[in-house]
Amino acid sequence: MKTHFKTFKALVAEIDKREYRNIEGLSAQVSQKDYYAMLEVLPPVYVGDGWLLPECLTGSLYYHFFKHSTLNKYYCVVVDKFKIMIAEQNRLKRAQIAEQTNN
User: Fold this and answer.
1) Distance between CA 33 and CA 49 in Å, rounded?
2) Which pLDDT score, from 0 to 100, does residue 13 have?
3) Which pLDDT tens digit goes with each residue over 11-51?
4) What is the pLDDT at residue 73?
5) Distance set, CA 67 to CA 17, 60, 96 (Å)
6) What CA–CA distance (Å, rounded) separates 50 from 71?
7) CA 57 to chain centre
8) DSSP code, position 5
9) Which among 49, 63, 100, 103 has most CB atoms closer than 10 A?
10) Are the CB atoms for 74 and 35 separated by under 8 Å?
11) What is the mean pLDDT of residues 98-103?
């Protein structure tokens, strides 16, 4: 079953088609225009390398938007908010430990 889509519109259509079931991990490349339009919809929740649209899709699943800096392309992936927040907390803890051991 396809998990990556060429446009944000195609991603949204697939989520609707699946009736919001089995959607975690679905992704799409998004245009710069769509990226910034979604950024202005509601105040974003910044996490890691991007941001979450603060309105959930279902349960704890959210759109996670980010820019791939090397490729200079924009993407969106459906993520579990709690998993991404825990990963971010762990990343910050590792950075803090590394900083303390270097001092």
Assistant:
1) 19
2) 96
3) 999 999 999 999 999 999 999 999 999 999 889 999 878 99
4) 95
5) 26, 22, 25
6) 15
7) 12
8) E
9) 63
10) yes
11) 78
DSSP state of 22: S
Question: What secondary structure does DSSP assign to 29-90, as a single string?
Answer: EE-HHHHHHHHTTS--EEETTEEE-SS-SBTTEEEEEEEETTTTEEEEEEEEHHHHHHHHHH
Q: What's the pLDDT at 64? A: 95
φ, ψ of residue 77 to 5 degrees: the values are -135, 145
CA–CA dist 61, 80 (Å, integer):
5
Q: Where are the domains of the chain?
A: 4-102
Alpha carbons 68 and 95: distance in angstroms, whole number: 21
Reference 65, options 82, 83, 47; nearest CA is 47
Tell me, what amino acid is at 2? K
pLDDT at position 103 over 70: no
